[in-house]
Amino acid sequence: MRTPTPAYLIDLAVIRKNCEALSELKARTGCRIVQALKAFALPAVFPLLRDHLDGCCASGLWEAQLAREFFGETVLTCGPVYRDTDTDLFNLSSHIVFNSLSHWQHWRHYALNHPRYQKGIISYGLRLNPQRSTGSPPIYDPCRQGSRLGALASSLKNADLEGLSGCHFHSLCDQNSDALAKTLEALDLHFGALLRRPQIRWLNMGGGHALTRPDYDQQLLVDLIKQSRDCYHLDEIWLEPGEAPVLNAGSLHSTVLDIFQSGKETVAILDVSATAHMPDVLEMPYRPNLTLDGVPSLERGTHRYQLGGSTCLAGDIIGPYSFHRPLKIGDRLIFQDMAQYTMVKTTYFNGIQHPSITLRDESGNEQMIRSFDYEDFKRRLM
Ligand SMILES: Cc1ncc(COP(=O)(O)O)c(C=O)c1O
After folding, report:
1. Within a 13 Å sphere around the CA of 104, how many CA atoms are in the beta-carbon half?
2. How far apart are CA 311 and CA 270, in angstroms?
3. Is the CB of 173 under 6 A from ligand 1?
4. How far out from the chain centre does Cα 281 lie?
5. CA of 356 to the centre of ligand 1 (A)
6. Total domain count for the chain?
7. Which atom of ligand 1 sits closest to the CA of residue 140?
């Protein structure tokens, strides 16, 4: 039976292939790789990820809790800020990264007196801002002017950094290792002296590395990791990709519900929404690939439709797509590469049907693991 729409379908065979590539990279570089839960956080897939990766990267308390409950003990927490009530982070994390010197100073006394620190089970790092944009759109560029992400070199002059043993940066977005090379050059320029201090034992190079894309230059990554380890005498180098482990491993299945003419446009309304179910389409913005009858859509052609979502937002538009035949109500359109930054970011906006989640196992069997109903919508509000 075909999965009822709307539904995300997650393909475990693709995740395994990605993970095997990451395992090989770990072996070649000696670095450690964790899954960034902000991108993808389905506990049902954690056993497969755990076979290949070293743990999780959490952005805050609840992700750290999920990581500890379902994945394991290696939890690298890195958020822009922690609430005073987030002290459980110190029980859940193996590493905590502070986003600014002032936030480290705020937490420092607590952090250094924590029993897990005194037993050597947890260590602390500072997020650095490499101050070198390498091509991400501004919404995904932590190096933009006035950024709130990561300490600037100017904020660290003469700072007392006792108690910190790691540094972190994250400034890439779906990029190749040439962008990492530029970032590392800038990092050395601004923070080389800090990274050479003997107290700094680890460097976390964040996410945004397109490690599992066929055009990714792995040899350059191998060289850069080796150079960084040697140059700064580090024990560990970490990468925390969100997208790479699940690249091309998910699709969003939708049905055409209405077709009509609006001026020159033929509009097709679907039972999914850009804003509620694939927000990066609007935020990045980007154009997802999709198929009809297994045939990829065309850039242009006679059967052209403006695909719209089913919320009231005027801009809930996925974009203009052309097809090999005219669309009809009831057709199934399948959006590709939808595992990352979708299920973790969806909303119940307008109270429309929320996509269920189905797993396809490695023998091709499909099992719905989560469906949503009115009670889920209501529970968010009362
Ligand atoms: C601090 C940090 N680490 C890791 C990631 C994961 O990045 P990606 O999914 O692009 O690999 C992000 C994404 O925003 C991030 O902000």
Report:
1. 26
2. 10
3. yes
4. 14
5. 25
6. 2
7. 14
At 165-181, the pLDDT tens digits run: 999 999 999 999 999 99
Whether the CB of 60 sits within 6 Å of ligand 1? no
The pLDDT of residue 50 is: 98
Task: Give distance in angstroms: CA of 239 to centre of ligand 1.
Answer: 10
**Residue of minimum CA distance from atom 10 in ligand 1:** 208
Q: Closest ligand 1 atom to the C-alpha of 39?
A: 9
**Angle ∠(184,185,191) on CA atoms, nearest 5:** 80
In a domain, 5, yes or no: no
| Through-space distance between the first and last CA atoms of the chain, rounded to whole angstroms | 36
* DSSP tag of 351: G
Look up the CATH number of the domain holding residue 215: 3.20.20.10
Task: Choose one of 221, 246, 271: the last residue of a domain.
Answer: 246
Q: Are residues 254 and 226 in the same domain?
A: no
Asked if residue 4 is part of any domain, the answer here is: no
Q: Say if residue 80 is in the same domain as residue 218.
A: yes
Query: Do 242 and 292 share a structural domain?
Result: no
- Point out the domain boundary residue: 246, 278, 296: 246
- In the structure, what pLDDT confidence band is assigned to residue 348 with cuts at 50, 70 and 90? very high
pLDDT (mean) for 309-313:
98
Report pLDDT digits (tens) over 30-87. 999 999 999 999 999 999 999 999 999 999 999 999 999 999 999 999 999 999 999 9
Q: Which residue has the tokens 């790479």?
A: 244
Q: Do 132 and 185 touch, CB atoms closer than 8 A? A: yes
Give the separation between CA 285 and CA 377, rounded to whole angstroms. 27
Q: Which atom of ligand 1 is nearest to the CA of 173?
A: 10
Q: What is the pTM of this model?
A: 0.97
Look at ligand 1, atom 7, and give the residue with the nearest C-alpha.
207
Q: Does 172 sit in the ligand 1 pocket, CB within 6 Å?
A: no
Please indicate whether residue 39, judged by its CB atom, sits closer than 6 Å to ligand 1: yes
Residues 269 and 239 in one domain: no
* pLDDT for position 136: 83
**3-state class (DSSP) for residue 189:** helix
Shared domain check, 238 and 327: no
